[in-house]
Design brief:
six-stranded antiparallel β-sheet; about 200 residues; alpha+beta; 4 helices; 9 strands
């Protein structure tokens, strides 16, 4: 979907979720956002250290504060979890496993952490997760750092973790091409989702 304003996409996700019925097909949206900090429902203001001129938006997903910007792949998962017989924790595990598989294709060794959702490479975070479930359906999703300016992460405690370092695909020898990465991740996610009972 290219570079899309955060607020507009957030409203579209909410509308899609509220308007869908038992026959509505699941969708995965892939895009980038202009620079923005988003603060989750339980987000605490002390994790916003120095946002400067980057807007801060309070949103209805889980988690604390994170940063989105050009060069970061955003993946929103608009899924009927009841129909797929999929709980929120198994969905998080499925997303994390998909990212780990993607990174392994580029010979990058990554893993999730039990205490903090997301995917990490040598202790540095490369992908973040933040989901919301309404009426048995998920929206929001995940972000994967591909080829972006990481400086704004220093203006926050990323995901509520002071001192957490971030990394990205292009700094680890992976591709910088968002189209290539998005196509590969879509294939992995859809394959794993299709393997879940429907």
């Amino acid at each position: 979907m290219g570079l899309q304003p955060y607020l507009e996409i957030w409203r579209r996700m909410q509308h899609f979720t509220d308007a869908r019925d038992a026959e509505t097909r699941d969708e995965i949206w892939l895009l980038e956002h202009p620079s923005v900090f988003t603060q989750g429902q339980a987000g605490r203001s002390e994790h916003l250290l120095d946002p400067g001129d980057i807007p801060v938006i309070q949103v209805d997903r889980g988690g604390q504060v994170t940063y989105h910007g050009p060069g970061q792949l955003i993946v929103y998962l608009l899924l009927d979890l009841h129909r797929r017989k999929l709980g929120i924790r198994p969905l998080v595990t499925l997303i994390e496993a998909s990212i780990v598989e993607l990174l392994a294709r580029f010979e990058i060794d990554a893993a999730p952490r039990v205490d903090a959702p997301g995917v990490y490479v040598d202790g540095r975070k490369i992908a973040s997760l933040g989901l919301r479930v309404r009426r048995g359906c998920s929206f929001h999703g995940m972000s994967l750092n591909v080829n972006m300016d990481l400086e704004p992460f220093g203006r926050i405690n990323p995901c509520g973790h002071p001192g957490l370092e971030l990394t990205q695909l292009s700094d680890l020898g992976g591709p910088a091409d968002l189209q290539l990465v998005s196509e590969a991740l879509t294939e992995i996610l859809t394959r794993r989702l299709d393997s879940v009972a429907t």
